[in-house]
Please model this.
Amino acid sequence: MTSADPPAPQALDPAAYRDLVARALAEDIGPGDVTTRATVAPDSAATAVLVAKQACVIAGLDVAGEVFAQVDPRVVFTARRADGSRCQTGEIIARVEGPAAALLTAERTALNFLQHLSGIATAARRFVDAAGGRLVVLDTRKTVPTLRALAKYAVRCGGATNHRAGLYDAILIKDNHIRHAGGIGPAVARARAAAPALSVEVEAQSLGDVDAAIAAGADVIMLDNLTDDEMREAVRRIAGRARVEISGSVTLDRLPALADLGADCVSVGAITHSAPAMDISLEFEPS
Model:
């Protein structure tokens, strides 16, 4: 990863994760944390730190803090780093103080959120770095169900850009839509009539599709799994009349070559659906 951090993302509205945290805790705790009840005195206090066990980009600190707060409002969660910042191995991310039982009960759920979201942020930043500023890196809708708002926030923490949030805020006409509409032209015309205020994007799986999307007046043309030569020719034909998005089989290794093709952006499902969790641990300080 490079040395510069992306701009700090706008903080998440707690409403986006408060209920998720409550449901995650209910799933984990159920009727009670039997191990902690059996082994930890109710009046025992503790201090612990969240430590990065590998280099990563942090995301989800407020969510982790919410976990501890819901388990016991007496827990004090103090972030030492900010979402979107890079951490090296061994760096302290946050400090938590409060009843030892609460810290132990909250530990796994807090780490699950923090590790998952930091994994997405780290993957996103790797793609942004590989693009070298020549392509905008976009996410997709390939997210864990119910966690999309958090995943897309983590993408922003990594310096990448959100594509549409869902099926409601932009039009993306794909192959099955085209097939049922009777072609790209009719599909675009129907989309314009149904939602004239929304951007219209068309998936193109051939140069013929590219020509049809240009003729239909698409705002964005997604080049889906075309060869490099085909994509270069598509960019030439589009000639700035629509934004050009590259999609399909996009890997870190391919990004420098893709950036040479003249497209505007690249969409990468892997940054949300396949990002490995980062290794972050909660370590209790000696009492």
